[in-house]
Amino acid sequence: MKFPILLLAAATLSFAQWGGGGKTIRDYKKVSVSGRDVYVYAPSGLAENSPLLLSLHGANQDPDYQQSNTHWETVADTAGFVVAYPKGGEGYSAWDISGDQDTKWISAVIDQLVKDYKLNPKRVYLSGFSMGGMFSYHAISKIADKIAAIAPCSGTNVYGASKAQRPMPIFHPHGTKDDVLNYSQVDGFLKNYRDQFKCPSQAEVKENYPNAENKATLYSWGPCDNGVYIKHLKLEGRMHSPSHADVSDIWNFVKGYDVDGPIGASQPESSSSAIASSSDVAKSSSSVVGPRSSSSVVAGSSSSHHHWSGHSSSTLALPVDASLSAVSVYKSSDNYIVVAGAQGKTITVFNSLGSVVSTTRGTAGALKVYTGAKGMYIVKIGNRSFKTSL
Length: 390
Hints:
The chain is α+β, with helices and mostly antiparallel strands. Helix content is 19%, strand content 25%. It folds into two domains: 260 residues, Rossmann fold (3-Layer(aba) Sandwich), CATH 3.40.50; 112 residues, Immunoglobulin-like, CATH 2.60.40.
């Protein structure tokens, strides 16, 4: 591991400091997990089952430096989650980005903080700068069951892209003037994950994306398998630096996921009633209130009501054959009804009047099948029906 340590230890450049004042690492609680330090901030009045975000420093750096440049507590205070800054290993304060020493330790950190603060184990997010970002990519090949989404900042892994254990939502900010981990390698590196997750080949591009420090462009690929997105924030002129300017964008992305996928995604649900017909659309209410299940819904479970980007969706499905058991239907962030897991199946979308508004055949991965007026829709796939809304 000498090569990445020496490379990243050179990153003692002039980093962007947040000029907004605020808390320091001394305002955080220092806890010990297996003899190593973790600095933890929990907002006052934190609700049970809140999320957790871990922010990892670069090589030859420490939690103090990472916190003073990112100030995650400013977002945690308003959004209601716990933020933690773990300390890297000895020597160069580095991370094990090829073995399992630190993935095992971070897994223990997650378990400890979830227990201590009564957090939601399905909503744990991992972000990091430079070698901390590299570790985020490495972690999804080892402990993806513990992580809902990652946001590696300027952290393309020098060992190459890992083999992710499952499709993972990724938000990757990177400066074009990065002279430690050169910007030219970013697209090729991310393409490895786009290929793994069967993302669309073309990105949605938002130029002049608002950023407090740099002219920015946001590239979005998705929906990919399991409804995840990969996003890259290109920051014109930024060098190799962590920044408070990115944390709100990171949070607004990762908060839409838990370990099961998009939080707003419809989950398959069984019912003893007849198959939903076109007339059922007009008769049904727009949603059925109840908590989202933490796992795939089984026979006899209640209906669900989810929130994502201000919208809701619920499902209505019937006993199905095995080939339809993996089908899911959800609304994407750009207002499309998306169907995943329906390769080769006919997909029919009905509007609230019971009229067919779209018919298509499912493909591998996730497929956008319809976008239109706000309202409730029924998506019929084989003998399975899903109720959702735009």
